[in-house]
User: What shape does this take?
Amino acid sequence: MTLSYRASAAFLAGLVVSVPGLLRAGQVVKIDGSSTVFPITEAVAEEFQKSTGNKVTVGISGTGGGFKKFARGETDVQNASRPIKEEEIKAAKEGGVEYLELPVAYDALTVVVNSKNDWVDSIKVSELKKLWEPAAQAKITKWSQVRNGWPDKEIKLYGAGSDSGTFDYFTEAINGKAKASRGDYTASEDDNVLVQGVEGDRHALGYMGYSYFDAHRKRLKALNIEWDEKGKPAVGPSEETVLNGTYNPLSRPLFIYVNLKSLEKPEVAAFVKFYLENVERLTKEVHYIPLPATAYEAVRARVANKQKGTAFAGHGDVAVPISEILQRSPVP
Amino acid sequence: MLPEKIIHDLERRARRRRAIDRWFGRLGMVLTLITLGILAVLLLNLAMSGLARIDWHFLTSFPSRRAAEAGILSAWVGTLLLMVVTASVAIPFGIAAGIYLEEYAPKNKWTDFIEINIANLAGVPSILYGLMALGLFVYSFRFGQSILSGGLALACLVLPIVIVATRESLRSIPATIREAAFALGATRWQAVWHHLLPYSTGGIATGVILAMSRAIGESAPLITIGALTFIAFLPPPAFLANPPFVSFEWLFSPYSALPIQMFNWVSRPGEEFHANAAAAGLVLMVITLSMNGVAILIRRRAQRNIHW
Assistant: This one.
């Protein structure tokens, strides 16, 4: 007992003595935000730290949680899997934070079926919702229940495990709410399990990251997605359709936001420069889709000219080609 | 003499009661084995996918995008430092509060109210403690997104467990011990310090084990208050070569923790990252078990000296 009392006394004394340590933050580039963008930024941070010796920290508070810190000026760079929202723009203004909006890569999902499946080439977003929403559990079990004319056979479902960003993204895009999904499907964090499952069953349907489909293209068939609520025609997944913004709603651009005041610090400026020089190569390595090379040039120009603000005016409209995003001039 | 029929009937009933007794014993054993079996399968599964990944490199490397190069250095150091802060706050505060409520506080509506609420606090979801700590420690006290904030948040989270355990084990000490001490002219504090605390160390140690085991596995409140996922440097050292020899700067350092690193790896595609997560899980278990081992040792030694 005496021991732990002594320890706590020492601890409290130490606390008082070391509070000035608070003010010495050191040369650390502080990044937080989306866990989807995290693998890309982590890769850049890892390489940057190795080649320059500057310290970088990356957190995963989520896009929303990260923007709160960013708007208070606590972080230098914000990872975002969607454009900044209206209330976040307001919060940043109140916090006196001006920022650059830099698209860095694309994220996309693919809905796949067995390669011997000959009755379906494209599926509507509303049909995917009917199939995957929580209310479908134990009720929608046959292909014929999804669309009249499809076979009266049991549909075997494969999807991402609930800990993955893929799961969050698919449920948000299709069911309208992140993590809202039926639970009676084969879930795996390991996409190889999903590939094998769909490959081995003629009546299977599943979803996975685009890069995984890309790696197993010969063994699976990707469905075209028809966004019927918005009156958009069916579009198949490919790098081209992802980049021109027509493959929706299952693809989205990923961003980093850079605090303009932080950019005056040499280590942050060096980090952003390093980011844009290496992101294309590193994006591929962590299984995302890089922007076209010309787009990165435009992004670099945005940094050079310090074109602050957002090009989305607080609306997360997703069906925009990357070339158009970069042509718009950002509004502070 | 009772008629044959009645004796027969009594014997039959007794046999039935004994049969029920035997059956319950068997059922209990089977259920215990099932529970232990599930635990064993879980551990075995973790060991099978993770054990091969644990080596010196894994323990001494920082996170990386390449699963094979990634390590948990910043995570396990962060977890250990968090536990130091949590333990040095939650244990003395929890025990002191327990002693006050059990031995000093008058029994009235107010203390009943406090008692109910402490029990309720033990059941509050951990994310709420994270939100509370974000407002209080990170912003109001300006501790920042530091080990100190994280450790204090976890300390608040497990404080009720320590308080309840302290009270329970004080309550289990016979009232005659207190009366004997008072009869000899001891003050309340003397009774607590020389008798009640030493006798209840075993129960308190159990509470501390439970509390620390809960704290070490938490990730939600830490993510809320800004624990990091990628951090490739360590906090400044606590001990220095030159005077004043001790530094508390590490308290204000950014940090990561093992559950957060695991959470991140589990959500990454690819089997290799999952092996990393399992390996980190094993390390977390080893840390938890050795912490508990220390507490069990303390309990053993304390109980050896009790002679009622």
Summary: Confidence is low (pLDDT under 50) at residues 14-25 of chain A.
